[in-house]
Amino acid sequence: MTAAESMAPTDAPKKPDDLKKKTATAMLWSVLRAGWVNIATFVLFVVLARLLGPTEFGIFALASLFVEFTRIAASAGMGDAVIRQLELDESFADTAFWTTLGLSSAMGAVAFAAAPYYAALVQEENVTAVVRWLAVLLPLSTLGTVHAARMAREFRHKNLALQSVAASLVSGLVAVAAAYAGWGIWALVVQSAVSAVITVGLAWAMYRWVPRFRFSWAQLKPVLLFNLSMVLTQLMWMMLVRVQDIFISRWYGPTAVGAYRIAWRLIELLGQSVLAPIGQVSLVTLSRLQEDRERFGRTYNRMMAVAGIFVFPLLLGFGALAHEFIPLVFSPQWAESSDIAMVLVLMAVPFVTNFFAGPALAAVNRAGQIVAVAALQLAATVLLTWLLVPYGLVAVAAAYVARAYLTMPYQQWVLMKHGGVSPLSTLKMLLPPLVSAMVMAVAVWLAKPHLLMATGPGWPLIGASVAFGAALYALLLLLLARTMLRPLFDLLRSLVKKS
After folding, report:
1. Which of 163, 165, 129, 123 is nearest to 145 (CA)?
2. Percent with pLDDT over 70 in the chain
3. Fewer beta carbons within 10 angstroms: which end of the chain, N or C?
4. 210: which DSSP letter?
């Protein structure tokens, strides 16, 4: 047996208690990982936003949109394919590695050549050079994909957490130094390069597996057929979030893209701080429950409930304080982002359901249905944005929120049909924290003038508002969702014991 084979995961079916413990431990490390990354990202975000400006952020956002499109296509879903394998064959792991490297090299070349044409599409010529440098990094950034997937399928999220901490810390410090030195937008490019190098280097160091020079088309073909749907879905989901940037750039220019992207990024950071830890283990956990529909549905709804308890107050509370928070933290040049953020937080419910519906359908091998849902969402986003973009950035944000709610019923129907998850059971789990968070956000909004007179503007006002909102939300949650909180406390206790 080779050293690589000796590190292959134990693929014997997991007992329910064993799977619960592994999931709990993985979630603990994922929470720590997401917590650090989100805190570090936020601090870096603030510093770079003050050193740079909306125009630089807008140009980089447009460039990264195109490169991210090619990166998803290049991945071919091979990382998820490795995670999904009940019994991982070393030949398949080798095949996945070389497939990813080959496709990323090809797609990097395509992005490099197509950069001027994309710049013409978004009507910003400065995008060309940035796209080309990011395209060169594309093959490098995928060298650790299979290594990370193997760590994830073995629930080695501690390694993944340490990897993220190191990459975000070092790349962030380098980016700030470059921005302070006057590098402008190239500080963001340098950050991407340093992050890719460290991430890949640590992936190889933490998981001592070296791919062999072998390739099996027989093993790859059936996986690619399934992955094609998954990749199309990922592309559509990415475009779902980013396609509005193209409309905004053509109508209002890169500065407006920067203002819109900052508002969206803040909401994404808040949501991901909760969703990422749960989402990183959801596919693995739900995949192993796919034959037990009752436990599958119960586990899915429990994950949704945990997410809703934390995501709803974060998003809606942030919306209530956006006008005070964004100019204070990011400087007045970003004030336009406040109104955009206040509208985008209204999509709190579909923000959560979108995050978990895809992995749930993937766990029961319903890739075609995932594509159908994503296609409907993307088409609705394009149509509504096209109709409303002439009326300004707030209208563009309203188009995104409207699309989210208009398409959510179809998404939940598909999940019920193929995953056995009742929309009513999901709504029952989400309603108590949603109502509590909505009441809290309205109360904070109404209380701000009174708190302002007592505390003064700036951080004292924000601190008092957060304290008031947190206390009120906790009280409402205890009144409306006491029985729902018991499983959460059991989960938290298991996390502490396992740690």
Report:
1. 163
2. 81
3. N
4. -
